[in-house]
Amino acid sequence: MANIPVAMPRYNLFLYNQHGQARYPETLDLPNLEAAKRVALRVAQVFMDVVPYWRDLSPDQQSRFVIEIADEIGGLLLTVPFNEAEEATADQAKTKPN
Question: What confidence score (pLDDT) does residue 47 get?
Fold first, then answer.
């Protein structure tokens, strides 16, 4: 039997807030949904770090930002709130050795 390579699942990320949507520019080939969630959390962390007005937003406004993970044909698989990325960053800071 021939070795037929198995294709990895493909994921698309969409950033949403109350005003609109932006698609992450690349379709991601990742081994599973957990890996896609890790990428989504990292994208959210970078977004919060580079957007100058992020800290000026109220907690309510910040809570409206999410990343939706969709499969290759556009089916919604998971919604990742930006506040999950903030919590993950805070948890990492607590566990880092000095």
Answer: 93
Helices (H), the chain: 33-50, 59-63, 82-95
- Round to whole Å and give the CA distance between 9 and 71: 8
Cα gap 63→47, rounded to integer Å? 14
Q: For the chain, which ranges sit under pLDDT 70?
A: 1-5, 89-98
Q: How far is CA 45 from CA 5, 6, 22, in A?
A: 33, 31, 16
- Taking a C-beta distance cutoff of 8 angstroms, is the pair 36, 78 a contact? yes
Q: Report the Cα–Cα distance between both ends of the chain, in Å, rounded.
A: 54
Dihedral, CA of residue 43, residue 44, residue 45 and residue 48, to nearest 10: 120
Contact 15, 47 (CB under 8 A): yes
Model pTM?
0.81
Residue 55 is given by DSSP the state: G
